[in-house]
């Protein structure tokens, strides 16, 4: 994890309001060329998305139109979040422009509001709940390192907003073992399972097992999300 990203995560951890998180996220994503964003849960089809929205940095007029007309049900970007765990460019969200009129209308209207390109980060939560962080802006110049940084930033911001939204201020329980915490610390600084095995004296298989156990305990869906949740809950300190 690079120093700038760590500082951003620390800044998010210190925020106690949506306004504070909005300011930190906006400053951070501007470094990558993005200007607008939304952080939300995704409801089942037919449900109003507004109670699920954690933080909106969209144009107000577009937000009102999108939520009032139930565009989340036909938005190909939102739909694709249920099909993948990995970040994707909006342009990669599959739909048939010739046949899927509703999806085409959403994308065309978004373009009219200056939202024709973006990056979407799906957030899969324990219990089958689905979330999303969607960033507005060009993506063609992003390299893999920057995409990974944005992925981590998005997961952390989503988690911090969920925490504030539930007002669950009880101290974090020790959800992972000390050995699992040690392994996750090395994952957080970019070490591979093989490298962690060499450093700790554990076998490659045991390192992966510790990661999988921590993932199961924290209710996350991949290794990166596990690290982010462990940091957010202060189960590991870098």
TrEMBL record:
One of its GO terms (molecular function) is DNA binding. Residues 168-234 form the HTH luxR-type domain. The keyword DNA-binding applies. Keywords: DNA-binding, Transcription, Transcription regulation. GO terms for biological process: regulation of DNA-templated transcription. It comes from the Bacteria. PANTHER family: DNA-BINDING TRANSCRIPTIONAL ACTIVATOR DEVR_DOSR (PTHR44688:SF16). This is HTH luxR-type domain-containing protein. It comes from Devosia riboflavina.
